[in-house]
Amino acid sequence: MNISDVAKKTGLTSKAIRFYEEKGLVTAPMRSDNGYRTYAQKHIEELTLLRQARQVGFTLDECQELVALFHNPDRHSADVKARTLEKAAE
Description:
The protein is mainly alpha-helical. Helices cover about 65% and strands about 5% of the residues. Helix 3 packs across helix 4.
């Protein structure tokens, strides 16, 4: 999937996607032989999480924590939900 496909699926702009990559909030995509980014489903999930987190007011630092929690195999789904609900209540 290329960046424009990902932008359509996530509701983010290509610029926002590149920004999140630059900040280390998204797993770096693979690059094709011609240097274009190649995205997978995991990138859609990460970017959707970031979009939703930003919409409810998470800062970039808080998004970093949320993404780390999202990637932690020992976490429970309830942990991510609880953190999100805490932020929404602020």
